[in-house]
Amino acid sequence: MTTTTSSHAHAARREFAAFNAAVRMGDEIDRHLGRGTRGWLAIRIADGSSDGELYGDYEDAFAAQERPEECTYFPISPLCLWTPRMCEEHLESMTHLRHGCMVYGRPTCR
Fold first, then answer.
1. Per-residue pLDDT tens for 62-74?
2. pLDDT for the residue numbered 80
3. Higher-confidence residue: 91 or 11?
4. Which residues contact 97 (CB under 8 A, 6 or more apart)?
5. Closest CA to 49 of 69, 71, 32
6. Angle between the N-to-C axes of helices 84-99 and 2-35, in degrees from 0 to 180, rounded to the nearest 10
7. Higher pLDDT, 75 or 100
8. Does residue 44 contact residue 62 with C-beta atoms inside 8 Å?
9. Of residues 96 and 84, which shows the higher confidence score?
10. Tens of pLDDT, residues 17-64
11. Statement: residue 2 has pLDDT above 60
């Protein structure tokens, strides 16, 4: 019974961390959209945080990161709004892509 309780607690912590990362990512996107700025944003896949900078293009955003392989990059535009759910799904998908378990667009590690 301890194992079951422990695994449920671990799953709950993982879900809470994923939720917080999605919220952090959404807040970062909203901050830039609120300013009416456009550009490329780098978001850390592990926690949804950013260096807070908008870059002119993907290459600039990638080059500015200390660990570029640990980030996801996308353009910020008022034409492309992100919901918290979209942020959560994007970070989850990028996590699976990073550790190589995606087969035909689906994670195999679940």
1. 999 999 999 999 8
2. 81
3. 91
4. none
5. 71
6. 120
7. 75
8. no
9. 84
10. 788 999 999 999 999 999 988 999 999 999 999 999 999 999 999 999
11. no
Residue in the structure block whose two tokens are 């640990």 = 70
Q: Using alpha carbons, select from 36, 78, 41 the residue that is nearest to residue 60.
A: 41
Closest CA relative to residue 54, chosen from 35, 67, 69: 35
Residues forming beta bridges with residue 55, ordered by sequence position: 40
What secondary structure, in 3-state letters, does the chain show?
CHHHHHHHHHHHHHHHHHHHHHHHHHHHHHHHHHHCCCEEEEEECCCCCEEEEEECCHHHHHHCCCCHHHEEEEEECCCCCCCHHHHHHHHHHHHHHHHCCEECCEECCC
Neighbours of 4 (CB within 10 A): 8
> Which residue is associated with the tokens 């830039």?
32
Distance between CA atoms of residues 19 and 85, nearest Å: 9
